[in-house]
Amino acid sequence: MSVMTATRSAGIPQGRPFTVDDLEAMPDDGNRYELIDGMLVVSPAPGTRHQKILFQLAVALNAVCPNGLHVFPAPFAVRMTSTTELQPDVLVAREEDLTEKLLSAAPVLAVEVLLPSSVINDLNNKKAAYERMGVPSYWVVDPQAPSIVVFELVDGRYEQAAEVKDSDVLSVERPFPVRIVPRELLGTLAS
Fold first, then answer.
1. H helix or E strand, kind and range, residue 3
2. Where does the Putative restriction endonuclease domain lie (predicted)?
3. Cys-Cys with 107: which of 55, 91, 127, 148 at CB 3.0–4.6 Å?
């Protein structure tokens, strides 16, 4: 993951924050391009464990997702302003907030699956951005030492509500009742 500010490189804006219009001009090169308050965040293509957990988590959430809410794996954009567009690895959105192309309101759940290059960004910059957006629940999943940390919005600030590791069971009520075992998200990759 790298953070870019405006420079004189070809096609990259100079002297101003990046906008969602600039994202449209980014190459389709396998990287993920996101914006946090006008700063471009570039993440490399994820690996096997990351993708397995992302898929398994989306399937598990979708299996118990109530009517009126929808589960989406990345890439699916959350665009709150012209200078902030994020793509959580998994999100849960209210049906009425969806457009055909993206989510224009805070999701009820945003999940980031850590990459070695994304740890600082996911635990700091993205967490702060989701907090400002008013995302009620934010989960961080570590695929290397299977674990899930749950943050819940309380009086406008995230508080850690749970942390489970390996074969422990995560049992939450928000955004809807679900039980998840981190190690099981890896399927046969856990062995």
1. strand 2-4
2. 21-177
3. 91
Is the CB of residue 34 less than 8 Å from the CB of residue 43? yes
Class of residue 33 by CB neighbours under 10 A (exposed 0-12, middle 13-18, buried 19+): buried
Q: In angstroms, how far is CA 118 from the centroid of its own chain? A: 11
Q: Domains in the chain, ordered, with CATH?
A: 2-190 (3.90.1570.10)
Interval 45-86: pLDDT, tens: 888 999 999 999 999 999 999 999 999 999 999 998 999 999
How many Å apart are CA 110 and CA 93, to the nearest integer? 9
Strand duo 170-172 + 157-165: pairing: unpaired
What's the rounded Cα separation, in Å, for the pair 181 and 166?
A: 7
Task: Name the H helices within 20-116.
Answer: 20-24, 48-64
Which pTM was predicted? 0.89
- Contact (CB, 8 A) for 144 and 128: no
Q: Where are the beta strands (DSSP E) in 37-189?
A: 39-43, 69-73, 78-81, 84-86, 90-94, 109-113, 137-142, 147-154, 157-165, 170-172, 178-180
Q: What is the dihedral of CA 119, 123, 124, 126, to 10 degrees?
A: 90
